[in-house]
Specification:
Layout: E1 2-5, E2 11-16, E3 26-34, E4 37-43, E5 50-53, E6 56-60, E7 68-73, E8 84-88, E9 97-102, E10 112-115, H1 122-125, E11 127-128
Antiparallel strand pairs: 1-10, 2-7, 3-4, 3-8, 5-6, 6-7, 8-9, 9-11
Length: 134
C-alpha cells in the first residue's frame, strides 16, 4: 500500500487490525519503536476511539465493525520522513502488536511516499515485541 502526501499537506495511514482488539489502546510509533525508546506522536487510551496531539490524530473506527484505525498527519514537513508503525497495546506483561507502516522518502518537491509491503492482511504481519516496558 502506498500513502502519499506533500509538504504542507496531510497523510492518512489506515491500520487494519485483528478482531478482539477493539477496546485496546492504539498508537502510531515513529522511528525504530524500540521497547525502551518509543516515539509515540499520538495514542488512544483503552476504550477511547479518538486522540489528537498537535498535527497527529488517530481515529479508531471499531464502532463500524471495520477494525481499522486511521492515523492522520497534517501540515507535513520534511522532518516527518522516517519509519512509522501501527501499534496496539495488548495488556500488562504482554508484548504490543506492531505492523510496519511506512518508510517515507519526503522531500520538499517530491512529497511523501509511505511504502508498505502488503500481504493478505496487515495484522498477519504484526509480531509481538519481546518486552512491554516503556
Amino acid at each position: 500500500m502506498r500513502v502519499t502526501g506533500y509538504v504542507g499537506g496531510s497523510a492518512e495511514i489506515r491500520c487494519p487490525y485483528k478482531k478482539g482488539y477493539e477496546t485496546n489502546s492504539k498508537y502510531l510509533c515513529r522511528g525504530e519503536c524500540q521497547i525502551s525508546k518509543k516515539d509515540i506522536p499520538v495514542q488512544t487510551q483503552q476504550g477511547e476511539t479518538e486522540a489528537t496531539n498537535g498535527r497527529f490524530s488517530l481515529h479508531d473506527n471499531s464502532t463500524a465493525n471495520t477494525n481499522v484505525f486511521t492515523a492522520t498527519i497534517t501540515g507535513l514537513t520534511a522532518e516527518d520522513s522516517g519509519k512509522y508503525w501501527c501499534a496496539i497495546k495488548t495488556g500488562h506483561f504482554k508484548a504490543d502488536w506492531y505492523a510496519e507502516v511506512a518508510d517515507p522518502k519526503l522531500t520538499q518537491t517530491e512529497g511523501v511516499g509511505f511504502d508498505r509491503e502488503r500481504r493478505d492482511t496487515i495484522y498477519e504481519n504484526m509480531s509481538p515485541m519481546s518486552d512491554t516496558s516503556a
